[in-house]
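Section 5.1 Outputs to date
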Amino acid sequence: MFRFAAKAAAVAVACVLATSSLAADNILNVKVGDKFPDVPLAAAQIDKVKKDAKTISIADLNGKTVVIFFYPKALTGGCTVESCGFRDLMKEKDFPKDVVVIGASGDDMKLQQQFIDKNELPMALLCDTDLALIKKLGILGAANGKTPKRVTFVIDKEGKIAKIYDKVTPKSHPAEVLEFVKTLK
């Protein structure tokens, strides 16, 4: 009897662990070739993308290649390294003219603006404070979390996802994205 109970407990633990690791993986809701969700969001430094606007959505950028890199939290280590990597490549004018680079997180406008000011970031930073786009994409960091995973999407000129980077190393990632973007027409 004791052996049966121990085996049942072990099976139950294994099932719980398997389920929780699946939930933690948070399988993406989109794939390459899908239309990128058209969710209008406020952005710090919005005029870098769209003049006299209150929000930006992918529909506003039709005809351009768009890089949207999501990061967990502004003004933190990895997020700063990644954002500054994109900044440096943008300053060197390495990105083709028709490419728009945008950062995004669940942070509010005030924190995004502090991030821009402190690090002299040249790109707009989306403020997905309601997590609407983050949830649509399936990149919420944890079931009850308030931060996105570190994921980058490259969207083609028709608004379709051309590439998804879901395993990102902050230091080398911007150059990796640049190399891919240069292959697009």
